[in-house]
């Protein structure tokens, strides 16, 4: 049976030049390189320079993804930009990006699911492509979390970083089997009863301010592994596959211990796990496309590979996507 699939044509990413390592916090907060590494695996993160924004980083990542795909901006008719840190309350950062790329056809919008934003965005773009409303999509995660951190709160500010990642999805005909290239399955979930465990304490209609990130880290940790493994197991059973049938596990990069525990619970071999949290920190919606682009460019992820993406974040929101590259 012939089916429409959304196939990955190229990836790109961007990191601000300024690096901040754990020792840079030691002079300003009661913390240590050892504490941060032991609890999270993080060593470095990148911080946006003045004038560098979610849209400017998204543009850099998008142009690299277009280059990798051998396409021009004008070939794109859909932009889905996952971000919790848009340049403006409105218009959408995706539309600002569309303007910067010189695209005046098609449509563009932001998607807000915090750290799960990228799996939500891939799923959303996939559905638009399958419906025939668009043919080629830029799917982007771009975040400037450094601007919503409380830099005096050691339990949160050491965890996050800035950056952007993008991929180009294009419609292609498949056979409707597991051998097809493209997005094979997605599972998304959310549950607002966990609001207080991870949120920003401001917003346009509540306080009229941007607000700062607040998190009960231990509570988030407690739920993360169960939620992540649930949606991946649902995806595996829908496809009739198991951990040995996948080539790469590219999780949201929040914490090394969450990544390792999830892979172990699922039975995914450690050598299949792509980890960039040590270099990027938690870049929220940008973390998966940043990790993906790293693994594509260093030659790990290759055409035909089965890649599992997953994320969990504020809301709570969580989800998984399985793609054949
Ligand atoms: N340096 C030194 N000590 C610290 C630091 C720090 N940076 N931060 C907290 N501490 C202290 C705490 O004050 C506490 O001290 P106390 O015992 O004297 O009260 C102690 O360390 C233990 O604090 P916990 O919060 O219980 O530490 P825990 O082992 O849970 O580690 C962490 C904290 C790393 C935040 C962990 O809970 C975690 O990673 N949680 C998941 C967070 C996460 O992944 N969030 C992202 C979700 S995605 C999204 O949507 C944004």
| Distinct helical segment count | 10
**End-to-end C-alpha gap:** 20 Å
CATH homologous superfamily (4th level) name of the largest domain: Thiolase/Chalcone synthase
Give unreliable regions as ranges: none
The percentage helix is 25-40%
Bound molecules: acetyl coenzyme *A
Number of strands: 13
The arrangement of helices and strands along the chain is EEHHEHEHEHEHEEEEHEHHHEE
Description:
- The longest helix is centred in the last third of the chain and has 23 residues, at 217-239.
- The chain is an alpha/beta fold and 325 residues long.
- It contains 10 helices and 13 strands.
- The chain is globular.
- It has 2 domains: 3-174, Peroxisomal Thiolase, Chain A, domain 1 (3-Layer(aba) Sandwich), CATH 3.40.47; 182-324, Peroxisomal Thiolase, Chain A, domain 1 (3-Layer(aba) Sandwich), CATH 3.40.47.10.
- A hairpin with a 3-residue loop joins strand 12 and strand 13 (317-324).
- The two termini are 20 Å apart.
- Helix content is 32%, strand content 26%.
- Residues 31, 35-36, 39-40, 114-115, 154-155, 158, 198, 215, 217-218, 220-221, 254-255, 258, 282, 284, 313-314 line the site of acetyl coenzyme *A.
């Amino acid at each position: 049976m012939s089916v429409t699939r959304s196939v990955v044509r190229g990836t790109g990413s961007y990191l601000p030049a300024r690096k901040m390592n754990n020792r840079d916090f030691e002079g300003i907060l009661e913390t240590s390189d050892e504490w941060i590494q032991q609890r999270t695996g993080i060593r470095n993160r990148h911080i946006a320079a003045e004038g560098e924004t979610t849209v400017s980083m998204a543009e850099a990542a998008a142009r690299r993804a277009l280059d990798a795909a051998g396409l021009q901006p004008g070939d794109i008719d859909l932009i889905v930009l996952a971000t919790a840190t848009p340049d403006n309350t409105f218009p959408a950062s995706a539309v600002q990006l569309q303007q910067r790329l010189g695209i005046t056809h098609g449509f563009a919008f932001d998607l807000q699911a915090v750290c799960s934003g990228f799996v939500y965005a891939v799923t959303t773009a996939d559905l638009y492509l399958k419906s025939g409303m668009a043919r080629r999509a830029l799917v982007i995660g771009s975040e400037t979390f450094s601007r919503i951190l409380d830099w005096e709160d050691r339990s949160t500010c050491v965890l996050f970083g800035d950056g952007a990642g993008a991929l180009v999805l294009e419609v292609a005909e498949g056979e409707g089997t597991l051998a097809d290239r493209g997005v094979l399955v997605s599972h998304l979930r959310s549950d607002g009863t966990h609001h207080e465990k991870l949120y920003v304490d401001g917003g346009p209609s509540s306080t009229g301010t941007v607000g700062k990130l607040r998190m009960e880290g231990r509570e988030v940790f407690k739920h993360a592994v169960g939620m992540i493994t649930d949606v991946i197991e649902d995806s595996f059973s829908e496809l009739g596959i198991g951990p040995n049938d996948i080539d790469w596990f590219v999780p949201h990069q929040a914490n090394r211990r969450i990544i390792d525990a999830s892979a172990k619970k699922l039975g995914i071999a450690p050598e299949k796990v792509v980890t960039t949290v040590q270099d990027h920190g938690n870049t929220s919606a940008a973390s998966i496309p940043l990790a993906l682009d790293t693994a594509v460019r260093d030659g790990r992820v290759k055409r035909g590979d089965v890649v599992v993406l997953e994320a969990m974040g504020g809301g709570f929101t969580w989800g998984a996507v399985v793609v054949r590259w």
